[in-house]
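We emphasize that the prediction below concerns an isolated chain of 238 residues; any contacts that depend on oligomerization or on bound cofactors are therefore not represented. The input was used exactly as deposited, without trimming of termini.
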Amino acid sequence: MKTTRKSVRHYSLIAGLIVASAFVFQTNAWSWGGAESAVVIPAPVRDEAPGTVHSETALFSGGCFWGIQGVFQHVKGVTNAVSGYAGGDAKTASYEQVSGGDTGHAETVQVTYDPTQVTYGELLHIFFSVGHNPTELNRQGPDTGTQYRSAVFPLNSEQAEVAKAYIAQLNGSHSYDKPVVTKVESNGHFYPAEAYHQNFLNDNPDYPYIVINDLPKIKDLQQYFPKNYSSQAVLVKK
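Result of the prediction step, given as a token string:
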């Protein structure tokens, strides 16, 4: 089995112990990866119609789901954010299999939100700005593989149109130094991840990977999206 930082992380979680070797491995990984810097980008010109219901769902994939979940748990109007997998089959929707990189799954966060408080376009704005770097192909920071790809899984035609229009807008405005490689994918069946992955950022704020790669995203959310930021995280009930 291929030994990676994340496989070390997986076994340390299962054992319930972070050993010194895992810490060294993660520190080395940070030297060539590290936290992604937030990018100030324009809001989407096209957004979903004003909400008439109080609950909708969206799926976002942008590298390790710990950080993406942590960011959306601090967004006003989000009522739940669950780490999991999308893009593959039910039989391969487990952390051990997905980490192999050949299941078709991406680490994904299912976001339930109130569209009268925050729109799908606003969630995309946060996702592309502070959530991850959408110009990295099949990687994010120290994590590499198709399971860490940048993708959105629209759950209706309106979400698909908004997502495609926003990607075209960002590329057209040259908001980044490189093109946005985010995929708009159709296989949006979501499978929740194992319980120990839920609320990981909130429950493990001193974990080296979280400190280096993910806590800066929460600070960026607060700085760049103060109207959307909530200091109280919405946590998954285990």
